[in-house]
Amino acid sequence: MNRPGTGGMMPGMPGSRKMPGMPGLDNDNWEVARSKSMPRGDSIRNQGPLLNKPSTVHKTSSINTRLLPQGSGAGLIGKSALLGTGAPPSRPLSFGPEPTPQITPSPKPLSAAPALAPAPDKPASAPKGNSAELKKKTIALLEEYFSIRILDEAQQCIEELQNRGYYPEIVKEAVNLALDKGTNFVDPLVRLLEHLYTKKIFKTQDLESGCLLYGALLDDIGIDLPKAPTQFGEIIARLTLLGALRFEVMEEILKKMEDTMYRKAVFDAVKKTLEANPSGQTILGSHAAVIDACNSLLE
Fold it and tell me: Where is this region: Disordered (predicted)?
């Protein structure tokens, strides 16, 4: 007989001899762990009643499933407990698409609005009147001046218009009205413009802008007033001698005219008037580049 520990036999293997204190053996002589509640002795006797109990795990139901109504779930009888106990599912079945949960966007934190910087105060502009009404008043006061030729009264009427932005238009209308009346009104016109410039009513910019406005009309005016280009050149030269106009503006005035004949008539009158005056000769000598630019417009 084999003894424990000899011949390759290990304690607890089938065929080995049971030693005192060893665990119990099952029917196949394999060791079975004995719990504290298991009495000492042969494990086969202790487990005998369990082995003699009929097994109910693999029993099938004797109920005929054909006699049950369809959908009664009788086919689940006798199934393993792992398949469920027949209790209703925790989540109802649905054949349609599941509703998409609506996600409410979290409100964005409101940021404090930046403080608006106070707008800088704009200088008050001169009141603007109706252009037709202003033109009517301008022609009326100019007609009165050319009739009585009182400089202070003409100045007062212009100031009462209270519209400095309209001063270039007054210059244009004064030149147009004087040349339309004839050669005898050139001197009164120059005296009026000189007076308003000396009294600081008109500025150099007002006089230059007014001459540019009239120069743009000379192509049409020259048809009815052939002497107008020459007389206009004389007015420009006299205002330049007074320092009320810059000689550089001469080129811009000529560009306002499209007819080369009118350009030549105006520029020749300017040079002739300046050459007759020593101060004018100095002006011509110091603006050779402007003279060349003006001559290029006559070609």
Answer: 1-130
Burial class of residue 49 (count of CB atoms within 10 Å of its CB; 0-12, 13-18, 19+): exposed
Q: How far apart are CA 204 and CA 168, in angstroms?
A: 10
Cα 18 to Cα 12: distance, rounded to the nearest angstrom? 7
Cα distance between residue 214 and residue 297, in whole Å: 18
Give the residue-averaged pLDDT of 128-133: 76
- The pTM score is 0.58
Strands 31-32 and 24-25: antiparallel
**pLDDT tens for each residue of 220-259:** 999 999 999 999 999 999 999 999 999 999 999 999 999 9
Query: How far is Cα 119 from Cα 139, in angstroms, rounded to an integer?
Result: 40
Taking alpha carbons only, the member of 79, 281, 269 closest to residue 179 is 269
* Sign of the CA dihedral running 50, 55, 57, 58: positive
Max Cα distance, the chain (Å): 165
Write the single-letter amino acid at 265.
Answer: A
The tokens describing 29, both together, are 């002589």
CA torsion, points 252, 256, 261, 265, in degrees to nearest 10?
-50
What domains lie within the chain, and their CATH numbers? 131-296 (1.25.40.180)
Q: Is residue 24 within 8 Å of 32, Cβ to Cβ?
A: yes
How far out from the chain centre does Cα 292 lie?
48
CB atoms within 10 A of CB 107: 6
Long-range contacts of 151-160 (CB under 8 A, 24+ apart): 151/191, 151/192, 151/195, 154/192, 154/195, 155/195, 155/196, 155/199, 155/201, 158/196, 158/201, 159/201
